Amino acid sequence: MDVKAALTGKDRKAILNSCEYGEDVAVNTYEKALKDDIEDLTSEQREMLEAQYRLIKADHDKVKNLRDITS
Fold first, then answer.
1. Do residues 16 and 49 touch, judged by C-beta distance below 8 A?
2. What would the pLDDT profile of 2-55 be if each residue is shown by its tens digit?
3. What own/partner pairs with CB < 8 Å and gap ≥ 24 does 23-32 have?
4. pTM (predicted TM-score)
5. pLDDT-based confidence at residue 67 (cuts at 50, 70, 90)
6. Structure confidence at residue 15 (pLDDT)
7. Which of 7, 9, 15, 53 could make a disulfide contact with 30, Cβ separation 3.0–4.6 Å?
């Protein structure tokens, strides 16, 4: 993020866009794992992934909201 801040002149919206992109990748990866690999997981593994997914999705939504209100 320091490099991004230096290149963008510390533009908050650009930094939040970059953060949201990273969060998008994480959310999509969890969604794919939960959709495609669900049969290969134990119930404990599935519950753990679902809990982690909910946390990551909530963080993604917070970053997106911050980006949307930043002008």
1. no
2. 565 656 666 778 788 888 888 999 999 999 988 887 788 888 998 999 999 999
3. 23/56, 23/59, 23/60, 23/63, 23/64, 24/60, 26/56, 26/60, 27/53, 27/56, 27/57, 27/60, 30/56, 30/57
4. 0.75
5. confident
6. 81
7. 53
